[in-house]
Amino acid sequence: MHCWRIFWAAVLLIFGGTAVARTYTVEDLLRTEDLGALAFDPQDRWLVYERQESFLHMSRFDMLARAAVLRSRLYRVDLRAPFRAIPLLPDTHPGTILYGFSPAGSHLAVGRLMGERWQLGIVTMATGAVRWLDLSPDYHPFHVTLRWISDARLVVIACASGQRPWWLRTDSLPADRLPPRWAATRSGKAPAVTAIGSGRFRGTGDRLAENRLVLVEAASGDATVLATGHFLAMAVAPDRDHVALIEQGEAAPLPQDRAVGLIDMPFRQRLSLYDLRHRTIWRPCADCDVQGVVQWSGEGRSLAFVARRAAEDWPAARPFRLDIERRSLTRLDGHGIVPAIAEFPDGSARMPFAWRGSDILLFGRPALNPEGRTEWYRLRENGTAQPLTAALPEVAAELARVGRCQAAMRTADGPWCLDGPQPRPMQEPGKGFIDTIARLRLFSGEGGGPGQIERVETSPSGDIKAVRLLAADGTKSLIVAMAGRTALIDRLNLHLRNVQPAQARPISYRLPGGGRASGWLYLPPGAAAGRQYPLVVIPYPGQINGERPPAGQGLASARFHTNAQILAGGGYAVLLPGLPSGAAASDPIPAFVEEVDRAVIAAVATGAVDPDRIALWGHSFGGYAAAAIASRSCRYASVIASAGVYDLGSVPGIFGPTLRLAPELALPIGSQFAWAETGQARLGVPPWIDPAAYVAASPFYRAGHITAPMLIIAADRDPSPMQQAEQLFSALYRQDKDAQLLTYWGEGHVVGSPANVRDLYARVFAWLADTMNRPRKAPCGQHGSPPAGLARRAPNVPSG
């Protein structure tokens, strides 16, 4: 108990204190810090964590999507003494991440970005010395590409000589590849061409350069190439005798008799098994297209995966079990359970499964009831299937190890452990901390809310906890707690201590279908009672709000686009409506149009919003929604659409500004059709089957109905094609309507270079100030008809 009293004394110091309040600005956004990955060594001696420094400290600003690497600096904490964080390496710039500890904790593998070079380093923890190798380990936040097999050796998927991992170079492909190709054309001495094929010509073009499976000696840095191939990920057996490798195979055709989904990847994935004892490689299922990850059983003698074979489609995929010693492969389709395809927040689709002892847990449905609810089933070795979650009100597709539970499932009712014969409820990690914070009512800043625990991570022994705390003022803290000692390790975002956040108020409203939805209304800090503020509505179809304000709009969220805190700091009220129906773009009038209207009515009813000064600002799919709403409503005095798509028929098949330069990496043809057919647009079919549906859902073809001034924001490296922004702007220009087009060069889906971010918000504020205070050009309901000279040429213009 004594250590927890010390813990909460430290917490009170963290969350307490007052200062002269000010509002949140763009400069606060750019200075945001965060905590990245964290690792305990297996012996509970060391803690190493990634401290993500201010965005202003990055070495380059054309890779915002890779900021987690560009901002990262490693710190270590001696858990025996003196409990102080010190830099792990003498880096002068951030850009170093951790891969993992060796089994005894004596060494740590790290990676760093130095200019255009990505290097593997091995740190000796006792001395802090680091050996940098002439080796570029592959890196991907969702793939395992490096594992220790002893305290002296590790296996690494290494990139081709001199190349960065593709995940770290896609953003810079235009800068890397366009100039030499232009130079080749200018010289006339070498062709500058890419070639790709379909059907019989599907193998046309360059293939991804082969990489290597490498065995590295930690003491000397000597590297031995074990195998070459197109390796994507690995899984080392618990006994460390075998490595399962996922390889990129040939290009995969898209389905012809169903809509394309996220499960339809551009390349097949093959399984290889490398024997570290005998230095041999084995491909146990040459015609298996492996879906997602592979998993070893606890003793390391069996391997499980889900795959389709030969010409099978994904609905025919089944789990497989590979016995390593017998070299026998068994297809588990006798249990009567069909794997379910689940989509995850990272944009991937997988068929989830996990080991439980010698049995396999599968997320699926009975083959005899394909419309039934998906459940977790235990596939027994005797051929029977035991439903594990049928009695629970909700089932989640993802399992994780939490504490002593090997298969923990998190739902709205809390976590459940599926290790036993029946699910058992688990206590939330850190639940006691959360309750204590609630009792202490720890506040930060005028009108602030209680602090919260972001994450609790436990050491291998279970005796030490690393607690990440987020205060209401955006400051973050890392605390380590163990028997007899609790220490404050680090504090971040101290520049936010005197920032007064926007006032977040929940609102509720009835949906057109009869249900209810919730939204969040942010008012400027210190908002005066009885005053009506101009309102900016930020729509995003599919958004579902909870009982707490959206985490992505907090002071520490590092949200570069549609930032409610910046807008509120500038004197605007901001509405984040819940739009649970999603897109349904195939409907004559998308449901989100009226859902946003209901939310706005509820916001106006609070008395804090000026009903005559309401604007829309949508980003990405929200940019599409903003333009679609503007073409069907004249409630809004101003509209901003950033990084949106406006002609849905041209979305499928656009390669994008980066991957069109490197088709060998993976062209997004399938993912673009998946977005249109089964994803956010939900149009169900490709454009040539129902072109009218695509036209009806596209704001470009409804540009004649847009009456509000529109600010359109685009970027040349955005996968949402900037040509569509130019297309929508041109439609408004053709009609001499008030509009501006901003194009940011060198930027991607989110504008992130500091000078560009400052410019964007300055222009947004200037635009809102100008357009929200002018009288409307057209009264509500007057959309106008085509001019007489064009009317006979436009018989099919969208109505409504």
TrEMBL record:
- GO molecular function list: serine-type endopeptidase activity
One GO-annotated biological process of the protein: proteolysis
Keywords assigned by UniProt?
Hydrolase
Name the source's superkingdom. Bacteria
| Positions of region (Disordered) | 776-800
Q: Which InterPro entries match?
A: AB_hydrolase_fold (IPR029058), Peptidase_S9_cat (IPR001375)
Domain (Peptidase S9 prolyl oligopeptidase catalytic) spans 599-648, 679-773
Q: Does the keyword Hydrolase apply?
A: yes
Q: What is the protein's given name?
A: Peptidase S9 prolyl oligopeptidase catalytic domain-containing protein
